[in-house]
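Late entry, evening session. Most of the bench is empty. Finally got around to the prediction I had been postponing all week. Sequence below, unchanged from the version circulated by S.P.
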Amino acid sequence: MLGQYAQSYYHQQQLSFENNPEISPQRSLSCLERFLALFKNEVLWGIFAILASAISLIIIWVVNSPVEWQKYKDPVHEQGLIAIIGGIFAIVATLMSFYQIIQHFFHKTHHPSQKRIMRILAVIPIYSITSWLSILFFQSAIYMEFIKACYEAYIIYCFLLLLTKYLGGHRGVEEVILSRERIELPLPCCCIKLRPSVKWVWVFKIGLLQYSWITPICSGVAVVLNLAGVYANGQWKFNRGYPYIIIIINISQTIALYSLVTFYSNTKDQLKPFKPLPKFIVIKLIVFFIFWQSVLMSGLAAIHILRNTTCDPTTNNYCNGSTTGFTVEEEKILLENVLVCVEMFFFSIAHHWIFDWKSYANGKFKMLLESRYRYMNDRDDPETKIVSTRF
C-alpha cells in the first residue's frame, strides 16, 4: 500500500518538476552556467590534483637519475615515497568529501535523512587520515584500526537509519514488510517461505546493529591484547589473539551482511525513487570489502608472499647496518593502508553521484519524504520542523 502510494506520488512529482522551469532538470544550461558547474565540480579538481601530483613525482624521478633509483631502496626512502603517495590521495579524497558535506549542509532541505548522509560521507576523511597516519607511524596502526572499526560500525547504523527514513520511519518499514506476500531470503535460504510479520523488522535491525556493537568491542579488546603483547596483529598464530578477533568479527559481519541484503531485497521497490542499489553497493564495499582486504593481506603474509625486505648496508647508509628493510608486519601495514588511501579517492568520486545533494537542493527528495511521513503518521515528520545546524 505504501509502495503504491509512493510510486504514484513519485510520478506526480516528476511531472511537477518537469513543468517547473526553476527546478526542472531538463532545462538547458548556458555556456557560462556549464563553465561554472565544471569549475565547482570537486571531482574535476580532485582528478586534476592527482594528475598534477603524478606528473610532479615523475619529473622529480627523472631529474634524479632513474638509473640510480635502486640506491634508495631502504626503509627510510620506501616509507617516505609510500607516505607521499598515500598522503596525496588521502588529502584530495578528504577535501572532496568535505566539499560534499558542506554542500549537503548548505542545501539542507530534509534534516533527518541528510544528517545521516553527511555522517556516511565523513567515512572518507576518517579512513583516509587514519590510514595515512598508519603509514607514517607504524606503532599507531593498531589504534587507527580501532578508530576505523568504531566508525564503520557507526556507518552501518547510520545507513540503516537512512533507509528507515526513506521508507517513512519505523512504521513505514513495518507497512512495507506487512504488505508483502512472503519474506524473501537470499541464498542459501531462498527456498524457505516465511510469513510477513512485524517481528521481521526487528530481526533485520538486530542482525545489522549487532555488528555495530561487536566490532568496536573486539577492536577495543585487540588494543588491550596488543598492549599486553599477546595480540600479534596480522599473524595467524592461535596462541595469540588476532585469529580469534578476526573470526568473531567475520561471523558478526556475515550476519550483518545477510541481514542487510535481506532488508534490501524486501524493500527495494519502495526505495526505488531514492536509487538505493548504488548506495547499498558502496556501503558494502567500504565496510566489508576493506575488512576482507585486510584479512587477505594477513593471509599473504602467512603464506610468505609478503616477506621481509632486504637492504644492502654496504651501499646505503640508511640501512643502519642491517640487511633487513621492512618486516612482514610493516610491509602489510604499508601496502594495506596505501591501498585504502587510493580507494578512498575513488569512493569520494562515487559519492559525488550516489549521495548527491542536488536532489535535496531542488526539493525533490524533501517532498517525497514528507509525503511518506504524512501518509504513515497523518502529520509531518517532527524532525523536519526543527531548525538545527547540528550534525
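Two things to note before I forget:
The chain has 14 helices and no strands.
The two ends are 33 Å apart (CA to CA).
Will write this up properly tomorrow.
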